[in-house]
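Continuing from the previous page...

OK, I double-checked the sequence for Aspartate kinase against my notes and this is the correct one:
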Amino acid sequence: MDKITKQNALNAHTWVGVFLSVLLFLVCLSGTIAVFHFEFERWEQPHITEMENVSPEVVEKAMDSFLSRHTEESHHLFVVFPTSDIPRLVVENDHVAYFADNEGNLIEKESVSFTQMLVDLHLYLNLPHSWGMILVSALGAVICTLVITGIIAHKRITKDAFKLRRGGNGQQAQIDLHNRFGLWASPFHLVIGITGTYFGLAGIILIVIATLNYGGDRDAVVDQIFTPDPVLVPQEGKPAIGKAFAQMETLAPEKSPIFLTVHEVGEPEQFIEIYAKAPNRMIYAEGYRFDTAGNYIGVAGYENGEWGKQLLWSMYRLHFGDFAGLVSKWLYFVLGVMLTMLCVSGMEIWLSKKAHPPLASRLWYATVWGSVSALAFTAIADMFFTGSLVAVFWCLMLLNTGVTVAVKSLTKPMWLLISGLSVLMLLVAYVAVHGSATFTIASLQLNIPMAVYVIWSVYRARTLIKRASTEQAKVKKDKTGSAGQASQGNSAEGASA
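Thanks. Re-ran it with the corrected sequence; updated structure tokens here:
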């Protein structure tokens, strides 16, 4: 490939990354953490009864108790089974959700405000959903662009595949690490970018396909992707969800039921659908359908449908790594950290080439490490505050920006230290609020990684502070030595004269 093409690719890679650096970082950081969104839901309410399975009678009792308490109009009813990624029984409608114990008694209202804010940050950047998702999806396309232009711009991609130079001022090592992360994990980054782009642009794609091939009939396109609702004789009465659930042991004994939905509640077209996770398949789930009386109708046909339908139904698990339990989630977390660090190191490389302008550099570090601090304090606020967590998070981000402008000493190591101490404060607050429940699996699976982050961030901050002090002392010594030599030179000249 000629030098002009490589240079153009490098210019595109640089300026796209610089101008969208903050948005890309926030989407990548929140997405990396949101890989564990189910674990965060458990973490928010660690004292809830957990179980491995549940009987049809318990499911029926829990829903009956829920319906007697909540009579408001709702188009759907849901039951989340403990065989899903959350080992808890949840019954809900379109407005509210409750946990139930292993006897079918309602325990307390589901409250996962922090998790919802975190997922909303990743999917919509906390903007209105209609155009927030389009923006985030466009960023997915940008990630694909950065991966491709980065590979094209690489001058010696084969020779430098495993090169990592150390020494000097660290800039060369940072460039090498940036290039290695970008190259080694490029297949993952492309998968994340493509699937992320799909989620937001699916509506636009649907309109285009409907216009070109179906005379503008969007429903016809939807029916090709999502199996249409079954055509039934008019239904009435309370849905027999217990009877429907009991049949899953016979219909799909090898599958794990994830959740149950009652569609069009109270309407003549009401029906029950149970989504079950198919082993060794990437699709989200297969749908098993029943009429109101609990009689089996058939499957939705996602598991053995056309390849295009199976691909679209695999997008969720491909994007969030939810296909091989905690193994795939931790793999996605590590790869997500690499993608996030690409955003960080790319901007730091650009800043270093601009001689690290003080205010711009401090603002970047306030964004990177200050966002971790803002998330930690938002989680703390959720324990004592019932207002908008979106407002809390963005007010904290604005506060970080204002303080950084005002206080010149808030450099990279200081913000790194602040982020670690903020997470430590979150852990202390968590123990104070949840007490003995802090030591349940639901808590420890996230609290232990958070404690590891605290230790690493404090250690890393101290290392950077010591390094900066050593460099400052060396510079001061060099200046003093130069001044002394100049003074001796002047004295010698005077004596000679």
